[in-house]
């Protein structure tokens, strides 16, 4: 049961980072949100959540492109 709680906590942490990154992206731009997206990506990969990890990777890749998205 404790392991399940830890997994849920890590998922919630990644999801919270995702929300913070979205807000940061809106206010400061995608480049500023890159570190936050990367942190969320690492957690999603750790948890084996490929779809979420792919979404984070798209945000990271987009933050590396010049100009507005």
From TrEMBL:
Source organism per UniProt: Streptomyces iranensis
Domain of life where this protein originates: Bacteria
UniProt-recorded name of the protein: Uncharacterized protein
